[in-house]
UniProtKB/TrEMBL annotation:
SUPFAM superfamilies: Alkaline phosphatase-like
Pfam families to which the protein is assigned, alphabetical: Phosphodiest (PF01663)
Keywords from the UniProt entry: Membrane, Transmembrane, Transmembrane helix
Designated name of the protein: Membrane protein
Bilayer-crossing regions: 20-39, 51-72, 78-99, 106-127
InterPro entries: Alkaline_phosphatase_core_sf, Phosphodiest/P_Trfase
Length: 629
């Protein structure tokens, strides 16, 4: 009940709530008209009488709406539905007695009232399921029922990852006033915003390996080829993610000591791993998962908002085509189902699971929201569709900050970060009429005509955005430049000369790795440059990022990065995505970190491992360090 009083005290009229009131007026008019038309013996004095009924019911509904929100917080959605039907039925019954020109039998008038109120309440319930008020009320109710308070506890740490959001994009949205919650944090001076360079590859698996474990050396891309095992590794597959995690886990990850991992690639040594790829299971043991799937504001909300997302996607894709927006890619097929899955179902389920862990008092919670990343891939990272999703994620941050107040005996501090950004551009295939794999195979065929490679040769091209790892499986281990030149004369230079390839990285034996461009060579050990520096267009962090990438396991015989336009910062993705990340060029390597302004940053944040060290220091300063092994 104290929680209900707090919800009522915090309720304020907003534009969204005014729209809801107007919607309720229209619904009341239609429902009452239908009821009075269907039930014999119930008549009114005409349109004015009907309008009087609608005004009366709408006025009572406006007064009751915040009270029903409290009922939903205390009794749940079904309780609010029952109470709402009873109250509206009483109001409609009294209104019918006042408005009708002749006495009505009590039973008939009350039946009319119940029918109208039931229809109206059910329509309102379905529509309100899509509002944040109803969702927060339901989530708070479950949190309070499951909250565990075992005396005084140290503060907690909640880390929210906004997948794919570049620091310049976030700053732009804040300046435009489109992110009220994050904007208030920054303008009030309570939080600081810092950029950090992701390094290479700029992908979620590499970033989370670094953020959660401080070790990203086992992840050379989103996908790569394991020559020893003879198979392609894709980190979105649970089995592959689990094998990668076994290589890097130490038992001392960021979430060790009772933490929770929600909607991530890896567990971070968390005690609770929910919707985590490396575990490959649904959170069947989670009470929040079961409650979400059976609550009146769970599946109903998913249905209402999910259908809305599909219709919105169809409309926005049509607008891109009609306005001839370029660059663009096709947005149909499975993406039409993927968008509501990520932007509604996964987002709300993640919030519910995080709320459960906060109520249980988990010391550190790390969660990932992929909404923006998915939409930006298909629409473009700075397009209206993606910016609209970023606004919705700002609301999620606001919701989680409200829920964190009710954590199980902990005063949760919040950190918001991204794992990488995104860059935009026409794809490699759109520009040159062939995929990168087709170009590489053609050059290999031309090169091997002057040599005699072993039988059974195969070329594997594993693309991650505008980064590609090329494996020539006829050559054992990782082939150096001399071995490649012997088997495929001129292959490296031919690929480097392609207008869509910015540079090719190859191991030059004792001289170390080199980046080869069309007009120059950059030796990564020592930094000597011959001719035009192929890494210059990619910024000052590029040499260190490429050199570090060469030390990773299972890196390709050749590493290719697409060209970057010096005027637009656009790159040519080797996948069919208008917004992409994985390599270098543009904003894909410009990630963001928001933290309480009073917290100091002890080192330059270059790479996810550096951010991991900083997060660990903040965690330990809060008194949340895991016990010694």
């Amino acid at each position: 009940m104290r929680l209900g009083v707090r919800v009522l005290r915090d309720w304020r009229p907003t534009i969204a709530r005014v729209r809801s009131l107007l919607r309720g007026t229209a619904i009341s008019f239609l429902v009452l008209s239908l009821t009075l038309w269907l039930l014999p013996g119930v008549n009114t004095r005409g349109v004015l009488s009907m309008l009087w009924l609608v005004v009366l019911v709408a006025a009572v509904g406006a007064v009751l709406r915040p009270l029903l929100l409290v009922v939903a917080t205390v009794l749940g959605g079904y309780g609010a539905l029952v109470v709402g039907v009873f109250v509206q039925a009483t109001v409609i019954y009294v209104a019918l007695l006042l408005a009708d020109g002749q006495p009505l039998p009590f039973a008939l008038a009350f039946v009319a009232a119940v029918v109208a109120a039931t229809l109206s309440a059910m329509v309102h319930w379905l529509a309100d399921a899509g509002t944040d008020d109803a969702f927060i009320a339901e989530t708070l109710r479950r949190m309070v029922r499951r909250r565990r308070v075992d005396g005084h506890r140290a503060p907690g740490l909640l880390v929210i990852q906004l997948d794919g959001v570049a620091a310049p994009i976030l700053q732009w949205a804040v300046r435009a006033g489109n992110l009220p919650h994050i904007g208030d944090w920054l303008r009030s001076g309570r939080y600081r915003l810092r950029r950090w360079h992701t390094g290479l590859p700029a992908t979620t698996p590499a970033a989370q390996a670094g953020l959660l474990y401080g070790d990203d050396r086992a992840v050379p891309g989103f996908r790569w080829y394991d020559k020893a095992a003879g198979r392609l590794v894709v980190t979105s597959r649970p089995r592959d993610a689990a094998q990668v995690e076994e290589r890097i886990r130490t038992g001392r990850g960021l979430l060790a000591g009772g933490g929770a991992s929600v909607s991530n690639v890896f567990t971070g040594d968390a005690a609770a791993s929910l919707l985590t790829v490396s575990r490959g299971t649904l959170p069947g043991r989670s009470a929040a998962y079961a409650a979400f799937m059976t609550s009146p504001y769970g599946l109903a909300r998913v249905l209402v908002l999910g259908v809305g997302e599909m219709l919105k996607e169809l409309h926005q894709a049509r607008l891109q085509r009609r306005r001839r927006v370029w660059p663009r890619v096709g947005r149909g097929g499975r993406y039409l189902l993927l968008r509501p899955a990520t932007n509604v179902l996964l987002r709300d389920l993640t919030v519910s699971l995080v709320a459960e862990q906060l109520a249980a008092g988990a010391p550190v919670v790390f969660c990932d929201f992929v909404d923006y990343d998915e939409v930006a891939h298909h629409a473009g990272p700075a397009r209206a569709e993606a910016m609209g999703v970023l606004e919705s994620l700002d609301r999620v941050v606001g919701i989680l900050s409200r829920l964190a107040v009710h954590g199980g005996g902990r005063d949760y501090r919040m950190v918001v970060l991204s794992d990488h950004g995104q860059s935009q551009g026409s794809t490699f295939r759109q520009r040159y009429g062939r995929t990168l794999a087709e170009v590489v195979r053609a050059e290999v065929t031309a090169a091997r005509a002057a040599a005699a490679p072993p039988a059974g040769e195969e070329v594997v091209v594993a693309a991650s955005g505008n980064l590609a790892l090329v494996y020539l499986t006829a050559l054992p281990g990782r082939a150096d430049w001399a071995a490649l030149e012997s088997a495929y004369p001129g292959l490296v230079r031919a690929l480097a000369a392609h207008p869509g390839i910015g540079f090719v990285v190859v191991d030059d034996g004792p001289a170390g790795p080199v980046a080869v461009g069309g007009d120059g060579v950059h030796r990564l050990d020592g930094g000597a440059v011959t001719g035009a520096d192929p890494l210059a267009p990619y910024g000052p962090h590029a040499p260190a990022a490429v050199r570090d990438h060469q030390r990773r396991t299972d890196v390709g015989d050749l590493v290719l990065v697409s060209t970057v336009d010096p005027d637009t910062d656009e790159v040519a993705a080797f996948e069919e995505l208008v917004g992409n990340h994985g390599g270098l060029g543009g904003w894909q390597t410009e990630a963001v970190l928001l933290h309480p302004a009073a917290w100091r940053v002890d080192e330059e944040l270059a790479g996810p491992a550096a951010v991991h060290r900083q997060l660990v220091r903040w965690r330990d300063e809060l008194g949340l360090a895991p016990p010694a092994a």
